[in-house]
Amino acid sequence: MIWMRMAVAALGVGGPVALGVAAGRPALGALAAVGALAATGVPSAASQGDGTASAGAILRGAASTVGAVAAAGFAGAAVTGHGWGGAVALVLMAAVSALAGGLSRPMAELTTRFVTFMVITTGPARNGHPAAVAAVVAAGVAWGVLLALPLALALARRADDPPQRALTHATGDTARRRGASFVRRVRRGAWSATSRRYAVRLTACLGAAQGIALLWPHPTGSWISVTVVIVVRRQLTGAARRAVERAAGTAAGALAAAALPLWALTAWPFTLVVAGLAGLRPAVKEHHPALYAAVMTPLVLLLTGGAPAGLAGLRIADTAIGCALALGFGYLPWAVRRREQPHQQDQRQAHERDQEDDRADRAASRPDTVRSTRADVE
């Protein structure tokens, strides 16, 4: 099955590039291929907690992916070239997306995809109209989704109890329960400590990356922010190790792109290299973060402007800066805090136990309090 996923990914990304080369518009083909990169996440965006998804959920996830990536292309093109105002707008949109991702797992994946592709498109969309960029990116992701859907639907499991689900929809107070459930999800998810922490981590890294790119104007400055969104992720469990692995993979990918003569590829060899790198992504994405970053980095480099020899040093410098920001602002301080929290929790629990013992001792000296407390419990 993995070979089918790899073939779908290779065709999904390589197809738009080949079409652009054949039509004499390789830049448009590469921009559409950037959108097609998002199509490999369609099944996971619709999956439930056990990793399965119904056909309806997969179709809704596919439509949501197309919409999110098209919106990302529009936003990326809209903020590009507007100096500090555009940088602030990009960081604010990333912060809102990080908070909204706490509503549910599918929303977390959609918002992460939105932020990632918004930042990626700021490079190739520098001279494009936002609506045109959104249309091209949407066409690319729609092509990738059409290729990925048959395989995803073949693996889908239908819901087990449709009559019960229909009865639930038929009850009169469903809308009220849904509204209350949404409010709880906002309070416990979008405004939870995890979501707020991720928003702070992401915006701190992106804000620093945008500031450096503006204070040090150079042709590849957007790659600092791209490195940040590749390395920084929502979950902190095992984050320090995975962040270091992703940073190492990103640096290795940038070095490989600089060392290999990728900048000298002609149109059709370029297309084959892009398709080959895209085909490797599904095989390494889940369990090999370093390899995934090492594959993703030259792929994004090629699709967002290539890796010309004269800019190799700048790309490496941008990658190093982005990795340093992601680790310095996005992970290491928070990992230290998480290691301190279990000790603090033990102290708090011990303090609470001491307080309970004191209350029990005082209650034992007053039998009426004991009787009233027992009556309240009963």
TrEMBL record:
Organism: Nonomuraea rhodomycinica
Name the UniProt record assigns to this protein: FUSC family protein
All residue ranges annotated as the Integral membrane bound transporter domain in the record: 211-327
Cell compartments where the protein resides: Membrane
Alphabetical list of InterPro entries matching this protein: Memb_transporter_dom
TM regions (residue ranges): 57-77, 84-103, 131-156, 198-216, 254-278, 290-310, 316-336
Record flagged with keyword Membrane: yes
Residue span of region Disordered: 340-378
Keyword Thylakoid among UniProt keywords: no
Domain of life: Bacteria
Keywords on record: Membrane, Transmembrane, Transmembrane helix
Membrane disposition: Multi-pass membrane protein
Gene Ontology cellular component terms for the protein in this record: membrane
